[in-house]
Model the fold of this input.
Amino acid sequence: MGDRNLGAEILDGINEIKQFKKGKLALRTHELSEPSPPKEIRLKLHTSQSAFAGLMGVSVRTLQDWEQGRREPQGPAVALLRIAEQHPEVFNQLHQSTAYRLGWIRIM
Done:
């Protein structure tokens, strides 16, 4: 944490909000791209529907609905899909640690 002055950062943020409300400042915004379709992400990660659904915290049926276009991922699921696509190493690491914990793989 070191040299950060959180109080000053908070006050700066409040002042920026006040200036924005008065029309004197344009706030910085970032547009997030939509993730690729869930099936495409899952196939790039080389995981089964069951494993990918488990990593996403959804049922296999929900994942199948997404992949077949019957439903669209919402809220946190979209964020997780974005992470899976942009940082696949995170999901690969989770998948490996889960497989190890469940005894599917053993490290010799």
